[in-house]
């Protein structure tokens, strides 16, 4: 174990060549170990605005909103380059940064045409390409040295040599205010997940999964109503002053402006419903919480 004299994140080409020529430097693998309180203390000293946002979350602020308000800085630049209390352990092992889709060629064995193919892909005559599909069928013909990655969120197509430019796409998404750089089609929540199946003018359709014994917040929407159809398990639904049990192939309706809560009373079986939202506004911020097991605002 050695004390670190200086930590330099991604040195420029000139400095990197000098380091290699001089020798005596270690390459950081990006594997860090610290106690939670220690890194919070370092952030309080070197990233005070980010630290304040974390403390806001601790006090009950919405985590997603606080995270979006944080400055865009890595822990390497924000803390490790500034602190004087870092140790390093020299180690030798196989390691890959996996910093882009093209780096998959370093860890997966290609077929006889040089392709890495995963998922539901039908290919004719492609060579030296990375072809990945997560769900729906993807067909490719005659690609050479290309990357194609199809996910529920988005589809990427680019030459292998430009895989790093995906960062520019993310920046464009941010500038245009598009949600894809922050949100997935399937979103994790403390009580389970929801998946956006379709969205259009004045409506949105979701598949909602509630884990056994968990429930959503007691809430209300000002600008939309909701229809729920149970497709697995049993739902306990609070709607205004009444509580109803909704089973598979049964449905219920939540009018706009009515307090409601969805709960999975089963200790073992997940609850799944299809939700159809209808109204002049169907975004996630149209929600007023009156009680929440997870202390969200």
Provide structural commentary.
This protein has six helices and 19 strands. It is of the alpha+beta class and 297 residues long. The strands form six sheets. Strands 9-10-11-18-13-16 form a six-stranded antiparallel β-sheet, with no helix packed on it.
In total, the number of strands is 19
Mean pLDDT, to the nearest integer, reads 92
Shape: globular
Gyration radius from CA atoms, angstroms: 25 Å
The largest pleated sheet is described as: 6 strands, antiparallel
Q: Helical percent range?
A: 10-25%
Give the distance, in angstroms, between the N- and C-terminal Cα atoms.
Answer: 44 Å
Element-by-element helix/strand order: EHHHHHEEEEEEEHEEEEEEEEEEE
Strand content: 25-35%
**What's the helix count?**
6
Across the major sheet, the strand order is 9-10-11-18-13-16
Which class do the helix and strand fractions yield? alpha+beta
Low-confidence stretches: none
């Amino acid at each position: 174990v050695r004390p670190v004299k200086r930590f330099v994140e991604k040195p420029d080409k000139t400095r990197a060549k000098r380091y290699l020529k001089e020798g005596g430097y270690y390459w950081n693998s990006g594997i860090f170990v610290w106690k939670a309180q220690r890194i919070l203390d370092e952030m309080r000293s070197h990233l005070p605005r980010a630290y304040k946002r974390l403390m806001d979350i601790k006090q009950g602020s919405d985590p997603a909103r606080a995270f979006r308000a944080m400055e865009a800085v890595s822990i390497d630049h924000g803390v490790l380059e500034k602190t004087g209390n870092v140790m390093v352990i020299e180690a030798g092992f196989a390691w890959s940064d996996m910093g882009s889709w093209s780096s998959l060629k370093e860890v997966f064995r290609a077929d006889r045409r040089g392709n890495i193919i995963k998922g539901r892909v039908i290919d004719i005559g492609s060579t030296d390409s990375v072809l990945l599909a997560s769900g729906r069928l993807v067909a490719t013909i005659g690609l050479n040295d290309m990357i194609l990655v199809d996910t529920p969120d988005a589809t990427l197509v680019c030459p292998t040599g430009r895989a790093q430019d995906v960062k520019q796409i993310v920046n464009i998404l941010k500038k245009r205010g598009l949600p894809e750089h922050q949100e997935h089609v399937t979103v994790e929540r403390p009580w389970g997940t929801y998946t956006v199946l379709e969205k259009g003018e004045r409506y949105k359709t979701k598949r909602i999964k509630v884990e056994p014994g968990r429930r959503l917040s007691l809430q209300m929407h000002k600008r939309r109503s909701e229809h729920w159809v149970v497709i697995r398990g049993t739902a306990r639904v609070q709607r205004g002053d009444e509580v109803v049990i909704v089973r598979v192939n049964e449905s219920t309706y939540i009018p706009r402006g009515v307090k409601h809560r969805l709960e999975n009373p089963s200790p073992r079986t997940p609850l799944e419903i299809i939700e159809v939202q209808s109204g002049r506004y169907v975004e996630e911020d149209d929600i007023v919480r009156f009680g929440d097991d997870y202390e969200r605002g």
